[in-house]
Amino acid sequence: MELQIYVKFLVGLFAIVNPVGLLPVFISLTDNLDSESRNQTNRTANIAVAVILIISLLAGSLVLDIFSISINSFRIAGGLLVVMIGMTMINGKLGENKQNKEELSESIRKTSVALVPLALPLMGGPGAITSMIVWSTNYPSFGNLVGFILCILIFCSCCWLLFRSAPYIIRALGTTGLNVVTRIMGLLLMALGVEIMVGGIRNIFPGLL
């Protein structure tokens, strides 16, 4: 049962961040860098994502308590956000839901893009942060949190390897292949978002579902 929880957590993280779909974005943001600088950007971005997700996982419930937000209300709002992100991915609008035009224009002028916009908001965006808070409140035990942290480290290591191989993967998959992967991830993400919303609605209205 514990293994199933961690697998579901890891698959959900891949779906909501969609690192494969972000490959063209990573390439475009680092196309003016040499190989060494690109690898350094890749490493810095994934370390930053790991820190963002771990902090969200550990401090999420505290933030909810400070603002007097119930976990069930947060599940419904977070699930809706996840569904909207998944729908955007299915429509093929890569990254537009996580980064507005002003942020994109600013990021192009910056020399280093590892922290902004790559780590935040493209990878460690609202959807991923919402997911961390929901998981930490559903499984708050110390053992589960340690397991989730290990999953986050595995995820960031996979993203690092993926981005390091970005030029070869894009050449192999092509535009069509990347679009197919993005849409499949979007469908998985919408299903996870609906499940999160149903859990919150069920607890608020026990007789409804």
What would you say about this model in short?
With 209 residues, the protein is mainly alpha-helical. The chain has helices spanning 2-17, 23-29, 35-66, 71-90, 101-109, 114-123, 126-138, 142-164, 166-204. It has one domain.
Describe the model:
The protein has one domain. Helix content is 81%, strand content 0%. The chain has helices at 2-17, 23-29, 35-66, 71-90, 101-109, 114-123, 126-138, 142-164, 166-204. The protein is globular, with a radius of gyration of 17 Å. It starts with a helix and ends in a 5-residue tail after the last helix.
Globular, elongated, flat, extended or rod-shaped: what is the shape?
globular
Which series of helices and strands comes N to C?
Answer: HHHHHHHHH
Overall number of domains:
1
Q: Using DSSP, what is the number of strands?
A: 0
Radius of gyration: 17 Å
What percent of residues are in strands? under 5%
Number of helices: 9
